[in-house]
Amino acid sequence: MTRDDTPLDGKTALVTGASSGIGRAAAGLLARDGADVALAARREERLRELADEIEAEHGRRVLAVPTDVTDETQVREMVERTADELGGVDLVVANAGINRQGSVEDISTERYRSLMDVNVDGTFFTAQAAIPALRETAGVLIFVASFAGHYPRPDQPIYAASKWWTRGFALSLAGYLGRDDVGVTVVSPSEVDTEIGIHDGRPAHERFADIDSATPEEFAECIAFAARQEAPNAVAELGFYRRNKFSNWTRNADG
Ligand SMILES: NC(=O)c1ccc[n+]([C@@H]2O[C@H](COP(=O)([O-])OP(=O)(O)OC[C@H]3O[C@@H](n4cnc5c(N)ncnc54)[C@H](OP(=O)(O)O)[C@@H]3O)[C@@H](O)[C@H]2O)c1
């Protein structure tokens, strides 16, 4: 069997958090696989630069849609513009997310809210706005959760909880939207070298410098794989982490 080089030919993908890291890499791979792509995030200049890069490299139509996912009006407009200007929405990657360090006792209400606004509300608004368009195309909705949404994370309970929420929401939606032939996938990475955490002064690519972390492109292949799913099947969940991820846990268990 030969692999079709452009399995997403004729499809339109919308990626949130496309100005950096995983979203940026996913947008490039989806275009490589044949999709036209809409790029959403707040930093417009980055989106425009990426749009030029993807157009030049893959020859696809690319739309930059500056969007703050915490603003439901902007999110609705993001989906409408994608559908109007690229001719429909076949695939949505709800990827935009942030992390904020801080213990439960000390974290300010503002920092707590900013995390929940993006990771929970932003994810919800994105799915809510995308569902009607995805029903029309029997499309695919991919959520980027986290390894932290599978196991307790004592040092980052609020971030972890936002990702458990993402999985709970996504897996429940999968049952609901499956009746309409919409596929739902949750992808959960562990350490990926991106900018996440930069607002606390230490981006992931610095924090993970001494471990075998993944590149955004390596993880984004999971998104590209899930994007190729066709009715009646769905890729429900994918976990992605380094092979020695559990080695410390074993050492702890051994004392
Ligand atoms: N890197 C890892 O190790 C790792 C592990 C597990 C899960 N994840 C998840 O992967 C996803 C992507 O993160 P990343 O690691 O690629 O981090 P990143 O490089 O910091 O990228 C985050 C993206 O989210 C966007 N974003 C943040 N707030 C936004 C808002 N209010 N509205 C719209 N877009 C917003 C950012 O764009 P603007 O600032 O331009 O808006 C940026 O494009 C997140 O959901 C994260 O939780 C990452």
Automatic annotation (TrEMBL):
The keyword Electron transport does not apply. One of its GO terms (cellular component) is membrane. Gene3D superfamilies: NAD(P)-binding Rossmann-like Domain (3.40.50.720). SMART domains: PKS_KR (SM00822). Keywords: Oxidoreductase. Residues 11-185 form the Ketoreductase domain. GO terms for molecular function: oxidoreductase activity. Belongs to the short-chain dehydrogenases/reductases (SDR) family. PANTHER family: DEHYDROGENASE/REDUCTASE SDR FAMILY MEMBER 7B, DEHYDROGENASE_REDUCTASE SDR FAMILY MEMBER 7B. This is SDR family oxidoreductase. It comes from Halorarum salinum.
